[in-house]
Amino acid sequence: MIKRICQLFFAISIFFAIGFLVVISLGGNWTYPALLPATVSLDNWRVMLISDSSLWKAFLQSMLISLTVAAVTTTAAFVTSKHIAHSKYRSQLLLLSYIPYVLSPVIIAATLHFFFIYSQLSGTIVGVMLAQFFIAYPFGVIILNNFWNPRMRSIEELALTLGSSSWSTWYKVLLPISKNALLLCFFQTFLVSWFEFGLTNLIGVGSVQTLTVRVFSFINEANIFYAAIASCLLILPPMLLIWLNKRYIFNTQTLI
C-alpha cells in the first residue's frame, strides 16, 4: 500500500505541472478565484501557431542555437577531456571547470558583455552561441572526464601497439566505444543551451528571441495563456531527449 502511494505521489508530482500547463494553454476567461479557466478550446493555439509567426521563429532559432552549441561543445569537450584526464594536473584543471557555475551565467555575461559589444557580436545569434559555449563547454568536459579511465587508455595503447595510427585510433576505436558518452554529453549540453535565459537575454539584448526569452516576455506581459503555449513548445524537445536517452543510452551497454 505504501509502495503504491509513493509511486502515485511521484507520478502526480511529475505530471501535474505539465498537465496543468496544457490546460492553461487551452483556457480562456480565467479569473480569480476560479481554480480552472472558464472555457477550454484550441483558439489560443490557433492564433499563436497560425497568426504569430514570431513564436515559430523563436522555436527554430532556439533549435539552431542549441543544436550548434551542443555539437561544437561535445566535439571540443571530447578532445579536451581526454588530455585533461591524462594530465598530471587533472584535479586542478577539473576544478577550473566548475568556476563558471560558481560565478553563475549572468555574472559571466555581464563580465564579458563589453568584449561582445566591442567585437560587434552583441545582439547576434553567433554572439549568443559563443556566450553559451563558455557555460556548456566546461560542463561537457566534466561529463566526459570519467570516460577516460585506465581501461580506455589501455585500449588506446593496444590499438597503437598493433599498428594503428593516431587518427585511426580516434576514428575506428575511440569514437565507436564512446558513442553513448557522446550522446549523453550532447543531450545534456543541448539542455543547458535550450533553457538558458539570463546569459542569452543579456548578450542577445532583446534582438535574439529564443523560446525561453519569449516565455518570460509573455509572463511580463501578464499573458498567461500565450506563456503556457510557449512553455509547452519549450518542454517538447527535452521530453524527446528523455525518450532518446532511455532508448539509446540506458537500455544499451554502460558508458565504460
Please characterize this protein's 3D structure.
There is one protein chain. The protein has helices at 2-26, 43-51, 53-85, 90-97, 99-103, 105-118, 125-145, 150-161, 166-177, 179-194, 198-204, 211-220, 224-250; strands at 27-28, 39-40. It is mainly α and 256 residues long. A two-stranded antiparallel ribbon has the order 1-2. The model has no long low-confidence stretch (mean pLDDT 85). It is built from 13 helices and two strands; from the N terminus they run αββαααααααααααα.
Structural topology:
Elements: H1 2-26, E1 27-28, E2 39-40, H2 43-51, H3 53-85, H4 90-97, H5 99-103, H6 105-118, H7 125-145, H8 150-161, H9 166-177, H10 179-194, H11 198-204, H12 211-220, H13 224-250
Antiparallel strand pairs: 1-2
